[in-house]
Design brief:
It is a single chain. It is globular, with a radius of gyration of 20 Å. The chain contains 13 helices and 14 strands. The strands form three sheets. A seven-stranded mixed beta sheet has the order 11-10-6-9-8-7-14. By secondary structure, the protein is α/β, with parallel strands linked by helices. It has two domains: 113 residues, NAD(P)-binding Rossmann-like Domain (Rossmann fold, 3-Layer(aba) Sandwich), CATH 3.40.50; 178 residues, 2-Layer Sandwich (Dihydrodipicolinate Reductase, domain 2).
C-alpha cells in the first residue's frame, strides 16, 4: 500500500484525498492546508492525519509520496522540496504560470530520478485514451487532423480568473497537452485567436479572453484545432476527434446515462451533460491515481511527467504570443 499525503484541501485536493482513501493499493497518509479548517474537514471525512506543515509531511516516515493540490504559485517550490526529500510527486497543473520558473525548476531537479507525474487527467479518460489507442493500432490509418472541443458550462468567478494566469495557461493548457498526446509528435507552429464575447468588460479588465481557437501544426503537417469557450449554456462540452486516411475516432461527451426519448414532436431527448470536470472525468481521476501508484511500485517514470507539463506551458506561451502579434509563432521562439 502506497501511503500518499495530499497538500491542499480545496475542491480538487478534497476530491484527490477521497480517491486515494478509496483506492485498493493506496492509503491517505495525511493532509495539509494553510487553512486549517479545510484540512480538518478532509481529514475527518477520510480518517486521516492532519500535518502541521509541508516540512512535516516531507520529513514523515509514514508518507511515501505526495500529491500537490495547493495554489499554483506554490507548485514549483513544493515540487523541488519533495524531490529533494526523495518522495515521488503527483503535481496538479500547471507547474507554474511562469515558463522561466518552470525552466529553473527543471534545472534543479534534472539529476533526480524521483518519479514526477503531472495532473493532466484527461489523458486517462477512457474515451480519449481509446482515440489514442485507435491511432497507434492503425485503425484510422495515417493521422491527419485532431479536433479538440473544450467548453466550460459557465464563467468562473472574477476572484479565480484574476489569479488563473488567463484562459490559455489555465484552461487551454489541458487541451494543448491532449493535442500532444493524440498527435504523438511535437508541435512546431502555433496560431491562435482570442475574443471577448462571454463577458467583454471583465475580460478587458483582466486582459484575458473567454473565447479561443488554437491551431497547432507538427513538422509532418499534422494539425490539431482546439476550440475553447468559458460558457456553453448546454453544459460541460468535452470532445476529441481524430481524422485519418482510413477513418475517424471520436470521444464524445458524457451523460449520467445514455437513454434517449423519442416522441411525435421531438427525437433524441437526452439527459444534460455531466456537470463539470470532477463529474466528467470521474473515472480518469481514479485511473490517474492508479498510474501514480503503478509508477512508484514499479520504479518507472509516470506516463505523463514534468516535461509534458513544461511543453504544455510552452505551447500556451506561443499561443499568447500569436494572439498578441496576430501571426503564426514557431515553438522555437518560445523555447
Amino acid at each position: 500500500m502506497i501511503r500518499i499525503a495530499v497538500l491542499g484541501c480545496g475542491r480538487i485536493g478534497a476530491m484527490h484525498a477521497a480517491n486515494i482513501a478509496a483506492h485498493p493499493r493506496a492509503v491517505l497518509a495525511g493532509v495539509f492546508d494553510i487553512h486549517s479548517p479545510a484540512a480538518d474537514d478532509v481529514a475527518k471525512k477520510n480518517s486521516a492525519e492532519v500535518f502541521s506543515s509541508i516540512e512535516a509531511v516531507l520529513a514523515s516516515k509514514t508518507v511515501d509520496a505526495i500529491l500537490i493540490a495547493t495554489a499554483t504559485d506554490t507548485h514549483a517550490d513544493i515540487l523541488e522540496m519533495a524531490v529533494a526529500s526523495g518522495k515521488p510527486v503527483l503535481c496538479e497543473k500547471p507547474i507554474d504560470l511562469s515558463l522561466q520558473r518552470v525552466n529553473l525548476c527543471a534545472t534543479k531537479i534534472a539529476k533526480s530520478d524521483v518519479p514526477i507525474q503531472l495532473g493532466f487527467v484527461r489523458r486517462f479518460d477512457p474515451g480519449h485514451a481509446a482515440v489514442r489507442k485507435a491511432i497507434v493500432n492503425g485503425d484510422i490509418g495515417d493521422l491527419h487532423q485532431v479536433v479538440i472541443t473544450s467548453r466550460d458550462p459557465g464563467l468562473a468567478p472574477e476572484a479565480y480568473l484574476r489569479v488563473s494566469g488567463g484562459i490559455l495557461r489555465d484552461m487551454t493548457i489541458h487541451d494543448l497537452d491532449m493535442a500532444r498526446f493524440i498527435l504523438g509528435e511535437e508541435v512546431k507552429k502555433v496560431f491562435a485567436t482570442g475574443s471577448r464575447l462571454v463577458d467583454p468588460a471583465l475580460m478587458e479588465k483582466l486582459d484575458d479572453h473567454d473565447t479561443v481557437t488554437v491551431v497547432l501544426t507538427t513538422s509532418s503537417g499534422k494539425q490539431a484545432i482546439i476550440t475553447n469557450s468559458r460558457r456553453a449554456t448546454y453544459g460541460y462540452d468535452q470532445r476529441v476527434e481524430a481524422l485519418g486516411t482510413k477513418g475517424m475516432a471520436i470521444s464524445e461527451n458524457r451523460r449520467p446515462h445514455e437513454m434517449t426519448l423519442h416522441a411525435a414532436d421531438f427525437t433524441d431527448r437526452a439527459e444534460p451533460l455531466l456537470n463539470f470536470f470532477i463529474e466528467r472525468y470521474r473515472e480518469a481521476f481514479d485511473a490517474e491515481i492508479s498510474e501514480f501508484v503503478d509508477a512508484i511500485e514499479s520504479g518507472r517514470a509516470p506516463s505523463v511527467g514534468f516535461e509534458d507539463g513544461r511543453m504544455a506551458l510552452v505551447l500556451a506561451e506561443a499561443a499568447l504570443k500569436s494572439i498578441a502579434e496576430a501571426r503564426v509563432v514557431a515553438v522555437t521562439e518560445v523555447v
